[in-house]
Amino acid sequence: MEAQELIADLLFVVSTDRGAGPLAGLADACRRRGTRWACFFTNDGVKLLADDAVRSATQGSARAVACEHSWARFMGAAACPVELGSQTDHSALVACAARVVAL
Predict the structure, then answer these.
(1) Residue 55 covered by a domain
(2) Alpha carbon of 89 to those of 32, 39, 80: distances in Å?
(3) Is 43 exposed, middle or buried (0-12, 13-18, 19+ CB in 10 A)?
(4) What is the phi/psi pair of residue 82, to 5°?
(5) Residues 6+ apart with CB under 8 A from 74
(6) What is the CATH number of the domain that holds 23?
(7) What distance in Å separates the CA atoms of residue 100 and residue 9, rounded to the nearest whole number?
(8) What is the CA radius of gyration of the chain?
(9) From CA 58, how far away is CA 37, in angstroms rounded?
C-alpha cells in the first residue's frame, strides 16, 4: 500500500454554521505560524461560505472543499466559492492530514 501524501498539518471539518469565528481565528494562526491547513465544509457548515471572512480565510488553505449534497440542501443553486466534493473527498482529506479539528 502506498503512503498518502501529507497535504495539511491540520484539517478543519466545519459542520456547523456557528464556526465562523473559530475558523477565521485558527486560519489566521495557521498563516502566522506557516502551518499548512485544509478544510471540509459539511452539513449547515456550508452556510459559512457566504461569509466574506470565511471565504477570505479559505484562500490560504491547501484545499477547501464543500460537501456537494450539503451545499445543494442549504445553499441551493448559488455558486460555491470552493471546490464541491463528496464524503469520499472528506475521507481523503482526513487520510492526508496530520491532525483533524472538528468545528
Answers:
(1) yes
(2) 27, 11, 16
(3) middle
(4) -130, 180
(5) 44, 46, 47
(6) 3.40.1260.10
(7) 9
(8) 13
(9) 9
**Residue written as grid cell 481523503:** 92
Q: What is the pLDDT of residue 5?
A: 80
The structural domain count of the chain equals 1
pLDDT value of position 1: 35
Per-residue pLDDT of the chain (103 residues), as tens digits, is 344 688 899 999 999 999 999 999 999 999 999 999 999 999 999 999 999 999 999 999 999 999 999 999 999 999 999 999 999 999 999 999 999 999 9
Q: What is the pTM of this model?
A: 0.93
Q: Select from 20, 87, 92 the least CA-distant residue to 57.
A: 20
Q: Do 48 and 23 contact (CB within 8 A), yes or no?
A: yes
